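Ticket #4471: structure export looks truncated?
Reporter: QA, pipeline team
Priority: medium

Steps to reproduce: submit the single chain below to the structure queue and open the exported record.
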Amino acid sequence: SPGPDRVVTLAAEACARAGIPARATVDAGAHMFSATACWPCRQPNDLLISNGLATMGFALPAAIAAALVEPARPAVAFTGDGGLLMCLGELATAAAAGASVVVVVFNDGALSLIDLKKGGRALPADSLGWPCPGFAEVARGLGCREAPAPTE
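Actual output as written to the record:
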């Protein structure tokens, strides 16, 4: 499967090919580095990020708000599985409000940056994991259209 840089680049290219002036939102996690490096920013607010606070769960609500404030400009939310789990119910809000939002979930079943920090410490290997839900099925159940993309 493609790495995070490629995923962000593919999303940006798809928006450009479709003529969609999308903005992106991103929350804290390893994927944040790819989003900030690979999403094209041509004007202010092309990329919304809660920098400095390292806020997990920011991308989806921020994307919903951005899409509702400026309906002609869809939003792409880049989030990790942990971040999405923190605000999963917001998918129902997006569907009910008709917000034009695409959610890209980097699903690795881990808090990758925290895993790096716990390395070398005497912590159990599975101390921060969780069983990953089927995000596509959950999204569908909350009224969203879903399209898993395990490959390019």
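Status: closed, not a bug. The export was complete when the record was re-opened. Leaving a note from the reviewer for reference: The beta strands are 23-26, 47-49, 75-80, 101-106.
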